[in-house]
Amino acid sequence: MTKGIFDASAVCAPDGGSNYVLHLDCVGLYASGPFPLYAVGSYKVLSYPFTPSGERVSTGCTGMGPGVFAVATNAYVEIYNP
Fold first, then answer.
1. Which one, of 74, 77, 59, 64, lies nearest residue 27 by Cα?
2. 75: DSSP letter
3. Do residues 10 and 57 lie in contact, with contact meaning Cβ atoms separated by under 8 Å?
4. What is the distance, to the nearest Å, from the Cα of residue 67 to the centroid of all Cα atoms in its chain?
5. How far from 2 is each of 26, 41, 68, 69, CA to CA, in Å?
6. DSSP codes of every residue in 20-74
7. Given Cys at both, which of 18, 21, 27, 44 links 80, Cβ 3.0 to 4.6 Å?
8. What does the pLDDT look like over 38-47, one tens digit per residue?
9. pTM score, two decimals?
10. C-alpha to C-alpha distance for 8 and 56, rounded to whole angstroms
């Protein structure tokens, strides 16, 4: 697991499980509803669900979620329960 200022990534070895996600906590300016509603605060971003295979999985505070400008505060891998 590596966490940068704006993103995080993880490499998980195969373990026979599936439906994991990379959870990233962010703080900053984000879209809080339909345009033009914005807010400042914390929010979470989840990667797409994945099955551990030794490949790198990444997600960021901007570009794949509601974030406009934000920094990453915490990251971890968890089991995804839709």
1. 74
2. E
3. yes
4. 11
5. 15, 23, 22, 20
6. EEEEEEEEEEEE-SSTT-EEEEEEEEEPPPB--SS-EEEEESSSSSSEEEEEEEE
7. 21
8. 889 999 999 9
9. 0.84
10. 10
